[in-house]
Amino acid sequence: MRGLRRRLDGLYPGPGSGRNAPGPSGSAPEPGRLPPQAGEGAVCSSLGLPGPRFVHQAKARAPTRHLPSQATHTCYMSFGPLGGGGSGESREQLCFLLVPQKGDDQPLRPVFFLLQEDYDKAESEASKAIDKDGGDVKALYRRSQALEKLGRLDQAVLDLQRCVSLEPKNKVFQEALRNIAGQIQEKVRYMSSTDAKVEQMFQILLDPQEKGTEKKQKASQNLVVLAREDAGAEKIFRSNGVQLLQRLLDTGEPDLMLAALRTLVGICSEHQSRTVATLSVLGTRRVVSILGVENQAVSLAACHLLQVMFDALKEGVKKGFRGKEGAIIVDPARELKVLISNLLELLTEVGVSGQGRDNALTLLIKVVPRKSPKDPNNSLTLWVIDQGLKKILEVGGSVQDPPGELTVTANSRMSASILLSKLFDDLRCDAERENFHRLCENYIKSWFEGQGLAGKLRAIQTVSCLLQGPCDAGNRALELNGVMESVIALCASEQEEEQLVAVEALIHAAGKAKRASFITANGVSLLKDLYKRSEKDRIRIRALVGLCKLGSAGGTDFSMKQFAEGSTLKLAKQCRKWLCNDQMDAGTRRWAVEGLAYLTFDADVKEEFVEDEAALKALFQLSKSEERSVLFAVASALVNCTNSYDYEEPDPKMVELAKYAKQHVPEQHPKDKPSFVRARVKKLLAAGVVSAMTCMVKTESPVLTSSCRELLSRVFLALVEEVEDRGTVVAQGGGKALIPLALEGTDVGQTKAAQALAKLTITSNPEMTFPGERIYEVVRPLVSLLHLNCSGLQNFEALMALTNLAGISERLRQKILKEKAVPMIEGYMFEEHEMIRRAATECMCNLAMSKEVQDLFEATGNDRLKLLVLYSGEDDELLRRAAAGGLAMLTSMRPSLCSRIPQVTTHWLEILQALLLSPNQELQHRGAVVVLNMVEASQEMASTLMESEVLEILSVLAKGKEGPVARAAAASLGKAVEYGLIKPSQDGE
Fold first, then answer.
1. Higher per-residue pLDDT: 553 or 298
2. What DSSP assignment string belongs to 752-793?
3. pLDDT digits (tens, 9 = 90+) for 632-665
4. Helical ranges in 193-252 per DSSP H
5. What is the pLDDT of residues 250-274, one digit of tens each?
6. Which of 61, 127, 304, 545 registers the highest number of CB atoms within 10 A of its CB?
7. Is the dihedral of CA 922, 923, 924, 926 positive or negative?
8. Considering only CA atoms, which of 685, 594, 575 is closest in space to residue 637?
9. Element counts in the chain: helices (H) and strands (E)
10. Terminal C-alpha separation, the chain
11. Average pLDDT over residues 34-55
12. What is the pLDDT of residues 686-710, one digit of tens each?
């Protein structure tokens, strides 16, 4: 029993515990047994505890043998190992069950549950004792032990504090309290560590009992937030996080999969080694396959993850990895190709969702072509063409939702066309382009020849895909033997699907003027017949678009009309009718927008269209729908209505020369004059065009190509042309939408968007137009307008906008300096055009509040200060105001510049006197401040000024009307008096 006694000694450190406890009288019982007749004293004595007042009872965990009935019955049973027994002693001990007498308490029951490591029951029994006697230190101590084992340290410390308050001299309680306080501190430190947070979050996420709870949702959000920081991502990665995230992916629950994918984005973002390690654990095929799930949110998250992985791997290819990174990533180019190969395989897999296929195409569009034509390496594009061109064409030639075909969406074919166009544009030489043509033609021939009617339809659909993308390849495919004839023949088919495929191919084929002329001569009657006789609206609307396209072959040239007068207006009226028909699906109504995009070259159609408020609202509503392929057509129609395409007035002499040579001279429609355009712009603004365009800009789709972004930029620039319209554009979110357009797209599109931003910044409060951090994103597009390849108007507007931004805060001035705008601004200070020169000087005046700019003026060996002094004496009053303001600012901030003013020019005194004598109060104020700064800078400078006519001028100004000029003049005179250069008059003035 010695081992058991030692364990029980620690359960309650009371005065009777341990070796000093009273022992049983008489002879010792058998080892492991108590005599049946023994009372509670004997029982307690055999346990080494002080004799309790009450009889005790514990639940038996094994069958008990009842003894003859007495006042106190004792039962014997054997328990398993209690743990903590002495070395060499048996851990099995005999415990007893005491049946309590009526009304007795049971304070020893927690002891036995603690011995059996059943801490929940021990805590429960101790709580019962405490409820009956709040001062029972035994029960409090036992409960604190149970709570400590259960990990509830905050509750355990409360019980120990109560014990210490009841027995303040008990050193065991004090030591236990110190120990548990140390445990709490250690636990707090651990819980506040990132490792603990990661472990907790994964425990919650992987706990099946927490399914769908708010706790689980919060844990997933916290995990994603933690992974966004590099330190947190590294902690997750090193804590076996990728394997745990794989388990989340394997659950198949959308919420958990989203959390796992978004966390993986943080782990892989801009980190090549973690990216390769993640791919190694998860498997490239596994990651790519998530794209194909039906859940759109999960598919998009997987698309984002793959995009991040591609970026990390491409950066690795660019850097070539050395040192530690090189030891981890042997060949990032190989990993990159494996990923792309899996994406290409996904394109033609049956069972992949249409959204997943679109996301795969989007990824290929983003990662395969070169970012810049200046990059000489297009090997990845060539590899994709060789390995996957047929797979891309298979998607492009598929029909939406046919039985036995690939699952595609309404946007799949358009995405395939864009990818094909990107690949074709990325080719560098004729040999590469010829290989592209050959592969396309071989694929089309394989379907066209020997595959029956279904094969011909597939081939024609593929030709349509090429015509919408790399049209050169499409035109060559259209010239293959029998293709054009089959298109014309299938237009007369009785099967609706066959007619749809053929008519769409005919519409796309009419894009080139040469082809349009051929179809005008041979296919107009066929299209008219389809439009009039077909009972299917899907066929009629496509035939109508074909007629619209042919009717607009002359573009904006008023003198070139393909159809009779009034025919285009009738076609436009029908297009607007179908556009406003809510009963039609979005895919069919898209064709009505296509028709209007062509017909709005005609100014008469534009005027009728903007007058039709219902049609405009239907157009804007359609642009916000899931039908993304309509975006380019909507943007084209808006460009036509606002006349925001490039147009140069022809040289009259060249026009006369062309007429003399009997050459065709384009004529402008009378309704395309500026007054008509302004009226149309106001009607579009009233109809809500800005909010619609803002939604279009936010679209995350490959359909929003660089060309489409350029069209939107052109429209925005036309909308902000008039000052009174800019408030409406800002109120409807135009400023926010212009920033991404100015940062991404074609060079022309970015320039147009930046110019629109400049116009908004000039006339509106920038802090209201671009709230929050967005205002700092405006600086880079504005600085881009300062380049010499931009027009003078764009330079001027950029300078004015930067002037407004530079006057707001030091952080904005630092942003302008960081974008290296100061040298360009200085260059424009020498511009011959007076308005540009003035704007540059005003911008420099505001930038002079920055320390770095002051250092530039203070540096020796340059004429910056001289230029400001000379400009302060120019005839242009606005230029003088800007230069004098900069001079006043610099001399206030840097007094050392005051002594250099007389050195830069001999006319400095005349210039200052002219400023002081100016009738313009602003110029007077600037001159007075400059003089005050020079007087305060040194007594020698003050003496020079007081010996000139400046003294008399200052005296007059100081006696003038109370204001900043009079105060500055008086301060200068007061400083001169202080130097002893002059004496105050008798009246104290």
1. 298
2. HHHHHHHHHHHHS-HHHHSTTTHHHHTHHHHHHTTSTTS-HH
3. 999 999 999 998 887 666 666 666 666 666 665 5
4. 194-205, 214-228, 230-238, 241-251
5. 888 888 888 889 889 988 888 888 8
6. 545
7. positive
8. 594
9. 56, 2
10. 110
11. 38
12. 999 999 999 999 887 777 888 899 9
- Rounded CA separation 583/576 (Å): 14
- pLDDT for the residue numbered 187: 67
Grade residue 318 by pLDDT with cuts at 50, 70 and 90: low
Q: How far is 595 from 572, CA to CA, in rounded Å? A: 7
Left, alpha or beta for 948 (phi > 0: left; psi -120 to 50: alpha)?
Answer: beta
Instruction: Please tell me the distance from the alpha carbon of residue 164 to that of residue 158, in angstroms, as a whole number.
Output: 10
Phi and psi angles of residue 77, each rounded to the nearest 5 degrees, phi first = -155, 155
Helix (H) or strand (E) holding 550: helix 537-551
Pairing state between β 74-78 and 94-98: antiparallel
Sign of CA pseudo-dihedral 265, 267, 273, 275: negative
CA-based max dimension of the chain: 144
How far apart, in whole angstroms, are the C-alpha atoms of residue 508 and residue 468? 7
Phi and psi at residue 76, in whole multiples of 5°?
-115, 140
Contact 242, 267 (CB under 8 A): yes
The answer to whether residue 347 scores a pLDDT higher than 50 is yes
Query: pLDDT band at residue 794, thresholds of 50, 70 and 90?
Result: very high
How far, CA to CA in Å, does 836 sit from each of 793, 812, 833, 926? 9, 22, 6, 22
The first and second tokens of residue 519, run together, are 């179809």
pLDDT exceeds 50 at position 129: yes
d(CA 377, CA 766): 42
Alpha helix positions (H), 320-378: 323-328, 332-347, 354-367
CA distances from 73 to 31, 34, 39, 621, 718 (A): 19, 12, 9, 88, 101
| Residue 974 to residue 978: CA distance in whole angstroms | 6
d(Cα 770, Cα 740) in Å, to the nearest integer? Answer: 13
> Distance between CA 903 and CA 887 in Å, rounded?
15
Mean pLDDT for 420-449 is 91
Q: What are the DSSP calls for 783-845, one per residue?
A: HHTTSTTS-HHHHHHHHHHHHHHHTT-HHHHHHHHHTT-HHHHHHHTT-SSHHHHHHHHHHHH
Closest CA to 558 of 608, 602, 606, 607: 602
> Tokens 């070139």 correspond to what residue?
560
Per residue in 902-916, pLDDT (tens digit) is: 998 889 999 999 999
Rounded Cα distance between 962 and 509, Å, is 79
What gap in Å lies between CA 71 and CA 894, rounded to an integer? 104
pLDDT surpassing 80 at residue 45? no
Q: What is the DSSP letter of 89?
A: S
Mean pLDDT over residues 141-170, rounded?
A: 83
Q: Which amino acid is at 882?
A: A
Using CA atoms, how far apart are residues 83 and 71, in angstroms rounded to an integer? Answer: 33
pLDDT, tens digit, for every residue of 195-251? 666 666 777 776 766 665 677 777 777 778 878 888 788 888 887 888 888 888 888
pLDDT at 925 over 90: yes
- The Cα 180–Cα 148 span in angstroms is 8
Q: What is the mean pLDDT of residues 55-81?
A: 36
* Closest of 793, 615, 633, 791 to residue 712, by C-alpha: 633
What is the torsional sign of CA 961, 962, 968, 972?
Answer: positive
Instruction: Please state, in angstroms and as integers, the Cα–Cα distance from residue 255 to each residue in 260, 300, 961, following that order.
Output: 9, 13, 73
